[in-house]
Amino acid sequence: MPQKIQIRLASHRVSTSVAVNQRYPKIFTPGEVITSQNEFMRGHGTYEENSDLKASVAGVRQQVNNLISIRPLKSRYNGEVGDVVVGRITEVQQKRWKVATNSRLDSVLLLSSVNLPGGELRRRSAEDEHMMRQYLQEGDLISAEVQSVYSDGSLSLHTRSFKYGKLSQGVLVKVFPSLIKRSKTHFHNLPIGASVILGNNGFIWICPIINNSEDGASGFIQNLEEVVPRQDRETIGRIRNCILSLSQSKMMLYDTSILYAYEESLKYTVPELLVQEAMVDVAILTQQRLCMLEDT
Amino acid sequence: MSRNRDLLSKIGLRLDGRRPDELRRIRCKLGVFTEPDGSAYLEQGLTKVLAAVYGPHQVRGGRSKAQHDTAIINCQFSMAVFSTTDRKKRPRGDRKSTELSMHLQQALEAVIKSELYPWSQIDVYVEVLHADGGIYTACVNAATLALIDAGIPLKEYVCACTASLANNDVPMIDISHQEEIIGGPTLTVAALPMSGKIVLMEMSQRFHMDHLEKVLNKALQGCKDIRQILDEAVRLHVRDIGSSTGWANTS
To answer: Would you say the C-alpha torsion A89, A91, A97, A102 has a positive or negative sign?
Structure first.
């Protein structure tokens, strides 16, 4: 099959900006004095020096009563209890797995906070400890929920629900965590024939539609034999490229924006969607539709 | 002495047509890569530098290195083999690169609020694509931008600038490669421009003590000017991203 190869000069780069002209809040940069009154408390992204409150990151100000914090537009994932994350197992240890979740420190998944096959209320025996690598081994992808945050900032995860567990066939896309919009649900069965897990940590999992009707403890079964039909794989590929074009233009990712981008992308073939112009075009059209939705 | 006079023409212009207190053109861009947490590209005259920041992340390779109260800051300086007129044999690992890595680390350790990230590590990689004098200064400035892009808390900007002395009397800033070759002592200063603290100072040759103060003051003024330029670039970048996302995660 002949392949079209696109090579371009750096000077022919396309601007990826889809910024909407609107009022913008005051921006603080590191070292800038926020206030010199000392009745305020310092939050994240600020520090005190010579009784002045100064910013330590570049971002916008957030104030809750007396607490002032500066929020950067991009940073590592800061976990909060209840977040849905997608992560990769990096290590198997005594009674725990280490999970890379794009956070500051590796997260922990305790053996006691997973649902093992064969009943929910089961004692964890020494045998289970030996079997740990059979359930999850290094390199496996999982979806989980943040159970708690330790004092040093690392996260403890749990998969005690049929929604969570090992991920089998699909595609992982990594974006900056701040591009994921927080919403009630991060699991979406999109009507176009694919499921998307929008991890709060910026890891997005795209897979064929999951049927939740199966038995609850299927969290550790990975069916790699089953062949996903070509049409489904094309849909998944298209969604992946749409997410890439949205994230390249720094647009928020949630079910509506992904659906709109998918619909706008239909005039291109899946490989064409990797061309810069097409990516920006999709992003601009999506941005317009989202703006119209907001206005009505 | 006669060679030294060439640095500044009779009408007070330098070899490339600048005035003694003018910087070369600085152009910069934040967020040039998607894989690292933060990245920046900076051009200072013809000197071109890329910087990438990974982290803070779990300490890799031997947990014994991890510190319980601060983050480890790991800098790697490298020069592309095609960056100088004669092709370099190795891009990193030679004496000069190792020294510059250490100096870069010193400058960055002074500003990063690393006590907020115990048990972690921050990697800073800088790559010189085109060397035309003032390599270290360009690297420090690019690394600052990359750290800001990564959302890592800094006390303030750290900026670096070079200065020299022409005709044994006129201080001039931002020395190009050509001027470095002609001669004259080069003073490299990395400073925190807002509080006026100096984090690194280095001289290539000696000159009379009496001149030090005015050359140093010029260099510090240069740092302040550079901060202005970087600050503007950061604000533009933040505004651009913020408008695209609709300030959604910030309000």
So the answer is: negative
